[in-house]
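Subgroup meeting minutes
Present: P.N., E.W., G.H.
Scribe: E.W.

1. P.N. recapped why we're keeping a running log of single-chain structure predictions: easier to compare across weeks, and new members can see raw inputs and outputs side by side.
2. G.H. added today's entry (285 aa).
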Amino acid sequence: MNPRFPMSSPRLASQLTFRACVRARVRARVHALVRAASCALAILLLLPAVTPPGSSAVTSALASALASALALEAQMALRGGLSLSDLAGRGVESSDARQGLTGGGGWTLVSLGPLSLGPELYYVQKGTAALAFDAETGSPVSFEEFGIDYLEVPVIARLGFGLPVGDGVLRGYASGGLAWAWRLQCSFRPTAPGTGTGTGGGTGGAALSDGCAIPQFERFDDVIRSADRGTILGGGLVLRVGNFGNVTLDARQVRGLSRLARDPEDPEARNRAFLMTLGWDLAAF
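Output recorded in log:
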């Protein structure tokens, strides 16, 4: 057990208990709101079908209008492209950009006028090409390669808008949301002793790591978190191709909210990535 975190401390135990209770209450409130919204949406969608003719024209018209506005489009999208990522935060002295790949898809669940909301699923390569920590952190390890690949699940809201070109065929959108990611695999190359920090892409480093195992650490999961979360801000262009769907060009900035290291005394390195993808939005079904 880490001596800096005496789990037997009564004060620490009470803080952990309080945080657990707050999380449980927030989670219960969110689940209740989701259930209520789902029930309301289902009622709005079913009410026009079960309302007898002439019984309530106003109610039927209102429910029909809301059901049309909150249309479940079930529109699928496939995307693939490039990622450019590094690490940022207190304790990171230098971090060279890592070029990687990303690919996946999304699903537009709900549309309300120009607004739409839906989840996505992506494979994303993140990390940095070379990494050195600030001397004040006392970290003895630097890397010539520090790559972590994630399975990322964003939930994205989009606001579409017209452009003064293309006669309505070309449109733009702004997007934002949150993303949750889980580590899939790693590629680490610690800098060999006596070769410097490894910045600049040197080739004199140690051998490439075996998965997420680093020789300097007994257990990798005790050092680096297995999951991450972050914010997304971006936008893109949509080109309509007849009745076959849309071609999309999407650009987004993903900034990690969780520090990679578990130990609060380790450097506060967080993921930071810029993603550029080209995709095909299938026609709604």
